[in-house]
Description:
Low-confidence stretches: none
CATH topology: Rossmann fold
Strand content: 5-15%
Shape: globular
Distance between the termini: 28 Å
Largest sheet: 7 strands, parallel
Amino acid sequence: MNGDLSGKSALVTGASSGIGRAIALALADAGADVLVHARANRDGADEVAQLVCGKGRKAHTFLADLADSTAREELIAATGEAFPKLDILVNNAGADILTEGRSGWPFEKKLEALWRVDVQATIAIARTIGRQMRSRGSGAILCIGWDGADHGMEGDSAEAFAAAKGAIMAFSRSLACSLSPEVRVNCLAPGWIKTAWGESASQAWQDRAAGQSLLGRWGTPDEIASAARFLVSDESSFLTGQVIHVNGGRR
């Protein structure tokens, strides 16, 4: 299964780095044109767009702080101008509450940040674009959850992530019902994936991440991207309303 996306177009939110970057490039590898969204990382977004173009695909970039409802509407409008018939939406954007001192934020501030971006923005964008897709008769939507929302983890950050990502996992199942049969909606729930926080995490966290996976290691953004490419392609044409854990097996 190669997840061929030739002739299709995609919006990937939060695509200037990490998992979003890997997904945008994987979709381009499979043949899709991509709109690369970022909150403020212009250089990162432009670099991803250049790489997409280097694969022979069309690319656009758009900066928007999805915590702001007006910015969400502007992103949706820009996507419609770039790709009048959008085929794929990947809701990857999420608030950072782990790096650059944010781990020390009070719980309430962490939860508010996650709720505005990971939950409210994902829901608003998916509902609007999903209905546009349904009116055109086809489309695929992918949201990003977290395996810890099902299994649980201690700590302020984990509690906030569980609340936000658990909401998105539940929402994805319901949106699949609302948009069926024209539009498929699925959700990936990553486990320990070595993004920016994982690269700088202490040895204790390194050991914990490896120890909680049956495969004994961190996952990579590219491994999430491979699953994403499959779920938005016709190779997964009988999959909708699913939350799929990509975590190396939970120990």
